[in-house]
Design a protein that fits this description.
Length: 150
């Protein structure tokens, strides 16, 4: 397997891990609103404020992207809608911005998780008072999803 194939498998596994951590992995994850509700129109970010567990958020989709973040990132990447493909591209860009993309490609997943913790509230050490996952569990998810460690 060449480096490109490994990098592709690793980013795919890391995206699945984020979905698992955020509670959006599965059939309807790309339609998920913060708090567990869902939306049906992928034309644009739903920008729907949901309050749960004392927190109000516009987080939506498989990667629980905030409306504010989406409004900034969508035009930069030229994303046509909030479809699963656009959500994946946005998540990869957020990983890149956290300077974790090379770590993901190379299979340095613990380092990538640490670098991305301020982007996703469910990652260990995020500090947002939400349901942070255990790093060992996340590494196990990545492995099951086909990620290849360094």
């Amino acid at each position: 397997m060449d480096k490109t194939e490994i990098a592709y498998k690793n980013i795919r596994a890391f995206l699945i891990m984020i979905q698992y951590a955020e509670g959006t992995y599965g059939k309807d994850g790309y339609k998920r609103l913060y708090g567990g509700g869902s939306f049906n129109d992928f034309a644009k970010h739903p920008n729907s404020k949901q309050t749960k567990w004392g927190i109000t958020s516009t987080a939506a989709g498989a990667y629980q992207i905030l409306s504010k973040t989406w409004n900034e990132i969508q035009p930069k990447l030229g994303l046509p809608d909030f479809s699963p493909a656009s959500q994946d591209k946005a998540a990869i860009e957020l990983i890149r911005r956290r300077k974790a993309l090379d770590d993901v490609y190379a299979g340095r997943f613990a380092q990538a998780i640490a670098k991305c913790r301020k982007e996703w509230a469910s990652l260990p050490g995020a500090g947002y008072g939400q349901n942070e996952k255990n790093v060992q569990n996340l590494l196990a998810v990545i492995k099951v999803a086909g990620g290849m460690t360094a």
